[in-house]
Design brief:
Two copies of one chain form a homodimer.
Chain A: H1 28-37, H2 44-54, E1 60-61, H3 62-70, H4 78-91, E2 94-97, E3 104-107, E4 114-118, E5 124-127, E6 142-153, H5 155-159
Helix pairs in contact in A: 1-2, 2-3, 3-4
Chain B binds a DNA duplex through helix 4.
Chain lengths: 162, 162
DNA sequence: CTCCAGTTTAGATGAAATCCGATCTAGGAG
DNA sequence: CTCCTAGATCGGATTTCATCTAAACTGGAG
């Protein structure tokens, strides 16, 4: 059976479309301040995870983050990665990108752009946000489907003050 | 630890916003023709699965489809549900809606609208497609994030003729 | 320095999805 | 109608992603 999208973490290359990534400023030391700014306790694990994002990585799965952060903090547990990512999410440091397969994370500073997923190989590319009409996709990319996902609080939850 | 979104299949209510669902026309007998139109072999399992969508269900998880279709075809295997949904996807009968938790499926005829996910309870609602600017969301819904996902073939895959 | 709320850990647990070989069957050919 | 085979299904194991739990640890306020 043919895979519509594979489950393996798979390398997630980025398409270089004009806007070079504002190279992450988070050094090991800078990460501490960044954490404190967001009211988060500073721990070696959190710094290591935050620093992983400062590379030119783009979107990362929890597993990729775990693998890379383990280089800094060998005893790191997977649960800690998930806990930390949830904290970062709450603090607005990262945002989630859901698709098929594993959930991906990227710096919230990188937000504003949209995503293109290849229906054949499953890879995820960034798309220039300059208006949904002018997709600014490199030639050769063929859009088959477009889906807009809004996220926030529904009527019931917002009235319950969640 | 608080759940950002639960994993349970969860009831997926639909927001009634003006456009009443074009009630599915697939009866058990009509389903056969619909399958043939798409070049798919007609089997009891496929008919049962297709009929599940003709209810007023909206988005359904593979598990919900399995549960409901089992009423018609008790020996139905989960793998068959996944295989069939993949075939339906390829044939353009259904489309996928990815979010957190299980992947959901809906009739492709219902396509064109977008989705709103509640970040507190995880429920998924339909959003009127009349322009992304005029969301046509019922009062009380608070949009925190917007993400547009394009899907299709990337440069490499489209040149390889996938 | 001391203390404790908040963090982290290892391993168990759970859910979604897929794989695989054996078996069955829809529907075209004869 | 019957036969035949490509394609569909079965069922149960497996894989992957994510979360939970309880015990141990620690950042940083005081």
């Amino acid at each position: 059976m043919e895979h519509i999208a594979s489950w393996e973490p798979s390398r997630i290359p980025r398409v270089s479309n004009g806007s070079p990534r504002a190279t992450g400023t988070a050094t090991i030391s800078g990460a501490a301040g960044q954490l404190r700014e967001h009211g988060l306790r500073v721990t070696p694990q959190r710094r290591a995870i935050l620093v992983v994002f400062s590379g030119d990585a783009g979107h990362l799965s929890a597993d990729q983050i775990f693998e890379q952060a383990t280089g800094e903090v060998p005893e790191l547990a997977r649960a800690t990665v998930y806990n930390t990512l949830t904290e970062f999410l709450r603090a607005g440091i990262v945002r989630r990108v859901v698709g098929l397969g594993a959930v991906l994370y990227e710096l919230d500073a990188d937000a504003g752009h949209h995503h293109f997923r290849c229906s054949a190989c499953g890879e995820l590319f960034d798309v220039n946000p300059e208006g949904a009409a002018a997709l600014d996709l490199p030639g050769g990319f063929e859009v088959e489907r477009t889906q807009i996902m809004f996220e926030g609080l529904c009527e019931r939850c917002s009235s319950e003050g969640n």
